[in-house]
Palmitoyltransferase
Amino acid sequence: MNESDIDNSLNDCQLMTIYSWLPVSLILSDFLISYIAYVFIYCPSSLMAIGECILKLLFFNISFIMMLWSFLQTVFTDPGEIPSEFWLNTNDVQRVQRARSEQAGNILLENIVYNRHLALVTTSDKGFIRFCDKCVLIKPDRAHHCSTCGYCVPKMDHHCPWTNNCISFTNYKFFILFLTYLNVFFIFFLSTSFAFLYHISKLITQELKNEQDFLHVVQVVGLANLIFLIIYITNSSITVVTIIFMFYHYNLTLNNMTTMEALRPPAFVSEDIQGYDLGKCENFEQVFGDNVLYWFVPLFTSYGDGVKFSTSPRNLLDQQQYWYS
Ligand SMILES: [Zn+2]
Ligand SMILES: [Zn+2]
């Protein structure tokens, strides 16, 4: 590889980094513009009592801080590493790669699992040990290889381009809280300023009826009010999507499922294991912990170590409606 090739690959790498952070920048810009629109355009322009204004700003600022905190925690929390006991040494890798067949390779992996006392309850679709040949490791239960991150992630839910991070065991609670506070923030923004939006829309309609040109409309309505109108429409569209997304993830949490598992149910080693569903309350606590006060705060309180998970026996769940039955 000559110098220009190295320069080109460096440029590609920098471009990819810029590209991957673009959605995060867009989200942060939307938050910032929404904040300015509400605090500096809506509040001073609407004729509300000072007490009402203070109360609105108090709630608005609290939901803004919680939303931003949860978002930054989701973005900057490391999705986690697979513990060293799951990694294969050079000798084992060569033996597995040289194995005559997939079955022979699997026997070698089974021996490694047995000798290292690795607690695994899931297998591949073929009933083999789940092995990642890119990371050369035995995949712990619920771990998956993320093609965007380029490595295996514990209890991987999905790779989220909007946070430029994998949503996994370490940040799933932060992600759900982010969706929750985002919806609280947007719904509050949209519902309390609806009358102001109506006033701006009426003004624009009136001016357009008089067949005035666009520049004249901007002059009469005011650039700030037009910015408010645009951010209001943007936030309304975002809220429709994020509300659906939030309910989807609460449903997954209450059923102790990841998005990956909803798309492709895991295969269990033993027929006696029905799944991870431990009941709604227990499932919720697996992600949010048992301290009610911490449920609302984006601090890590999930149970476990990210590689071993409680399972439910089949005979107890025979009467229950199960997600892959
Ligand atoms: Zn991997
Ligand atoms: Zn990822």
In short: Residues 146, 148-149, 159, 166 surround zinc ion (ligand 2) (CB under 6 Å). The mean pLDDT is 90.
